[in-house]
Amino acid sequence: YEHGPVDGRPRMYTEMLEQPASVERALRGRLDERFATAHLGGLDMDARELRAVRRVKILGCGSAYYVGQMGASLVEELARIPADAEAASEFRYRDPVIEPDTLYVAVSQSGETIDTLLAVQEIRRKGGRVIGLVNVVGSAIARACDGGIYLHAGPEIAVASTKALTTMFVGFALLALQLGRVRDLSVADGRRLVAGLQSLPAQIEQVLGDEERIARAAASLATAESLFFVGRVRGYPVAREGAQKFKEISYRHAEAYQMSELKHGPLALVSPEVPTVALVPDDELTDRNVAALHEIDARGGPLVVVTHAGVDLGELRAERIDVPRNERELDPLLLTVPLQLLAYHAALTLGHDVDKPRNLAKSVTVE
Ligand code: AGP
After folding, report:
1. CA 252 to chain centre
2. 84 CA distance to ligand 1 middle (Å)
3. In this predicted complex, what is the ipTM?
4. What distance in angstroms lies between residue 303's CA and the mean position of ligand 1's atoms?
5. CB-based burial, 13-46: b 16+ in 10 Å, e otherwise
6. Do 306 and 341 touch, CB atoms closer than 8 A?
7. Do the strands 55-60 and 83-87 form a parallel or antiparallel pair, or are they unpaired?
């Protein structure tokens, strides 16, 4: 695989555009419509072993860690198993307690990230069971795990990860569905999610089709020295990933915050010079989120709002980007895609080479 641009387009761009196909591949052969579940043979765990899982702990670095947070929510929502994500780079330095009935999940595109690999080795040394959500077949992390799920994103060359991340989300959704269906997740809910997952490729295509509008919003953000990305609950890891992508290629200071925490401090920074990108899906928190947007607007803070059609934002000065509706649990994936395009177009506006972000390597293989 060549590392340069494809048909004059940056790698990152072509990889973003591949997402309908890569998500399709990540799903292929893994959904079972009849039993409304997922089958992940690579886990190498039978129903009894899956039922014995009492906790799920997800480990990854950078964007993989943020998608891990999205994955933890999916596991808790669908399987009702306590789950959380932690930066793999910190994990082994706090001498973690390794529990026999916890399922550890290492998530990595390259499968070579040293911090994630060392976390896997630490867990296995203490007798824990680790599965990998890995893109590169036969990589160090894939080999070090007890079993796993290959992402099938295809080769990802651009430093700023896009298509691998969306397949990671799919991997977590499949895992959560399978864990849920050996527990209390109903057939009806299983069916709902199977159908939701099947709709994702076409819906991603739809978001990508909104590129022009997103590029306009990006141009309005590119001049800001500093900006916020905010969301709540399912939207918060999306905000973290959005801020990460923006920082990596635009070199602007972008900080992610829970929308609910703004009033506890950072609201002091909101001004006409500091824009906010807000994730406001149509969910149980929409009204509260919209109220917070009005607080930002009242302080003159420019807004880009990623939301669903039909969400009433009231009288608000904002650039609005609507993403298609799916099942609420799957919202984070469709909210993430416009943020990739936003970072990409902001970086282009600023004249940066998005495929060669300064100071960054594609995978970090030394501590
Ligand atoms: C993503 O845009 C980053 N370049 C970076 O955070 C990356 O996700 C991280 O280094 C983890 O890499 P991995 O998935 O190959 O382990």
Report:
1. 20
2. 19
3. 0.98
4. 28
5. bbbbbbbbbbbbbbbeebbeeeebbbebebbebe
6. no
7. parallel
Residue indicated by tokens 């004059």: 8
pLDDT tens-digit series, residues 39-63: 999 999 999 999 999 999 999 999 9
Nearest residue to 331 (alpha-carbon basis) of 187, 233, 209, 189: 233
Which residue ranges have their beta carbon within 6 Å of ligand 1?
A: 61-64, 108-110, 113, 116, 159-161, 248, 363-364
Note the helical H segments in 126-186: 140-144, 163-181
Name the nearest CA neighbour of 344 among 107, 112, 163.
163
Do residues 141 and 108 lie in contact, with contact meaning Cβ atoms separated by under 8 Å? Answer: yes
Continuous segment of H or E residues that includes residue 202: helix 187-208
Atom of ligand 1 nearest to the CA of 60: 16
d(Cα 206, Cα 239) in Å, to the nearest integer? 21
Structure-derived torsion over alpha carbons of residues 312, 315, 320, 326, reported in degrees to the nearest 10: -10
Structural contact between residues 196 and 327, judged by C-beta atoms closer than 8 angstroms: yes
Token couple for 269? 């920074």
State the pTM of this model.
0.96
